[in-house]
Amino acid sequence: MGWITRRTVLTITAGAVTAPAVSTATAAAADTTTAAPEGRQAASGVNPVLRTDLVTRVTPRNNWLVTAVAIQYSQRIDLRGGAVPLSSFEVKATVGGQTAARTVTRIYSNNAAEADDRSHPGRPGDRLIIELDPNDSNARAAGTDPLPLDRAYSVRQLADVRTPGGEPVLTAGPFASRNDDVISPVVDDFVAGSFTDSAGFELDFRLYRPEGFVRHPQTHTRYPLVVTLHGGGEVADNNMTQLTSNRIAVTFAEPERQRRNPAFVLSPQIPLPRPMDGPDGTDWTDAKVQAALIELIDTFVSEHSRDVDRDRLYLVGLSSGGRGIYSLLAKRPDVFAAALPTAGWGDAATMDSITHIPIWADHSIDDPVVPYREGRFGNPGTWTLMNALDTAGAQVSRGEWANDLPKAQFEARSRALLRQARATRSHVLFTSYTPGTTPVNPHLAWAQTYENDVVIDWLFEQSR
């Protein structure tokens, strides 16, 4: 078997600032200011920019977006209780050869290059965070592939920022700064690697390792392993879009989720040219891909035998990834503890071999890409597969509700369905989404799947 090798992580690097930063002060003045006491530095208005970084976010519905700019200054920013007017800064983005302004929504100081989701954000620090409207048409950080974002953003200060008492804090000037780097929270925590199987077929993958393992690898605490199978749109050679095009692997690596359910997260990517030799023309059922995937999982678990809980291996996938789940479960019915297939399809004749496996499936009733009943390529969709499981002896608990409910209401419906399943000792659950309620596109049934704490907590409760 081929051993797992680590590849250089695909990063979007950016060059140096192309012009003197926002402050119009001379270098000599800046040096003099640097030597002054901290309180005086912030109020002098002379506080040069050291670097400018873009901050991105993988979102449930709009994929990978640039959501903030973080400007680092040489000195701590002291607003003396004041606020930074939104009109003080202008942010422009060049995406796809087109340059247009981004909409500034909040500005505040911080001590790290990260957005603050609190209703009253910010804390004293040497960074200024400029949050941007995620609904801007040029907010995207990726299409099929990550967009070239090095030096793609310019930031210019248009007006002086002053304390409530009128003292200058940050001085406007004629020059704009360009972004030096791109920071992708959570995504940056995945290492990149590749695996070549015994037949010579190579799969790239990204891997998240739980903090406890990274800090104390010798303790041999056993963690669950979540394997995520991307959809057909993420087949590529970038080892990136399986993380950023849909919020699936990233969800399981979020700090809050890892505090609740620490786990390894393994996210392989199918390479180009697109393999299409599977029995119904899909990718995860392609013989070469599936053999490599099985060997990758087996090898990873074997090499981490003291660190991975073999009784808690989970499969999560969307669209053609859901198709891959149904196929893989049938081929390896004694390996996985549970699965979350979304908007998938499969072979109804194999359902009798997986009746013992806990599954929580979901699908939009009006899905035009993978029809809810008919599926694709001659294999039926989720509704028909759930009927086949019922017939084979696995009692299926079913619920239907809108896919655009607020999170609290959405989870309340999920919680009610789970109570129903437990009352009838059912370990297969099926959520259908009412037509016309799935945001963006009816195929994107996963709009709330991986944000749903009820479903994810249920997954981690399962063990072989």
* Helical amount: 10-25%
Stretches with pLDDT under 50, minimum 5 residues: 1-44
Number of helix segments?
Answer: 11
Strand order of the largest sheet: 1-13-14-16-15-17-18-19-21-20
Largest sheet: 10 strands, mixed
Q: So what's the oligomer here?
A: single chain
Count the E strands. 21
Shape: elongated
- Terminal CA distance: 26 Å
Structural account:
By secondary structure, this protein is an alpha/beta fold. 22% of the residues lie in helices and 28% in strands. It contains eleven helices and 21 strands. The protein has helices at 27-34, 38-43, 211-215, 241-244, 249-253, 255-260, 287-303, 320-331, 382-392, 407-423, 453-461; strands spanning 5-6, 49-59, 63-77, 89-95, 98-101, 104-110, 125-132, 153-157, 161-162, 168-170, 177-178, 181-183, 191-196, 202-208, 223-229, 264-269, 308-318, 338-342, 359-364, 396-401, 428-433. A ten-stranded mixed β-sheet has the order 1-13-14-16-15-17-18-19-21-20, sandwiched between helices. The chain has a five-stranded mixed β-sheet with strand order 6-7-3-2-12. A four-stranded antiparallel β-sheet has the order 5-4-8-11, with no helix packed on it. Helix 10 (407-423) links the parallel strand 20 and strand 21. The two termini are 26 Å apart. Residues 1-44 have low confidence and may be disordered.
